[in-house]
Amino acid sequence: MPRYRFSISAVFGLLFFSQSAVYAEDAYTLTIKDHQFAPAELKVPAGQKIKLVVINEDGSPEEFESKSLKREKVVAGKSRITLSLGPLHPGAYDFVGEFHEASAKGRIVAE
């Protein structure tokens, strides 16, 4: 019978790698500039968790608000936030910048 030698660190490394792959989330970025979101429409995969990074390049704060996503968070000027979303069902999820609703609008499309 062949004998196999495994080091403890190799076994733990494999376990850690397999667990981190299961919990990995894709990251998507929205940028606020001149009180507008870019991109205005962000496509993401349906059925999996994602991280949404919102970067505010403006000097004034903005509030990311989405009733359909049930998320509301202020993004200070010249800063960023990260939101965990999902898994999302296929469909469109609108969001606004509550402090500048006339110009700061967008949509996340899960497909």
- The end-to-end span amounts to 51 Å
Mean pLDDT: 88
Strand content: over 45%
Shape: globular
The number of strands is 9
Radius of gyration: 19 Å
Low-confidence stretches: 18-22
Structural class: mainly beta
H/E element order: HEEEEEEEEE
How would you characterize the largest beta sheet?
5 strands, mixed
**How many helices does DSSP assign?**
1
Strand order of the largest sheet: 3-9-8-5-6
- Multimeric state of these chains? single chain
* Percent in helix: 10-25%
Task: Fill in the keyword field for this structure.
9 strands, mainly beta, 111 residues
Your description of this structure?
There is one protein chain. This protein is mostly beta strands. It is 14% helix and 47% strand. The chain is built from 1 helix and 9 strands; from the N terminus they run αβββββββββ. It has one helix at residues 8-23; strands spanning 26-33, 36-38, 41-44, 50-56, 62-66, 71-75, 79-85, 91-97, 105-110. It has a 5-stranded mixed beta sheet with strand order 3-9-8-5-6, with no helix packed on it. The chain has a 4-stranded mixed beta sheet with strand order 2-1-4-7, with no helix packed on it. A hairpin with a 7-residue loop joins strand 8 and strand 9 (105-110).
In summary, what is this structure?
By secondary structure, this protein is mainly β. It has one helix at 8-23, and strands spanning 26-33, 36-38, 41-44, 50-56, 62-66, 71-75, 79-85, 91-97, 105-110.
Give the topology, please.
Layout: H1 8-23, E1 26-33, E2 36-38, E3 41-44, E4 50-56, E5 62-66, E6 71-75, E7 79-85, E8 91-97, E9 105-110
Parallel strand pairs: 1-4, 3-9
Antiparallel strand pairs: 1-2, 4-7, 5-6, 5-8, 8-9
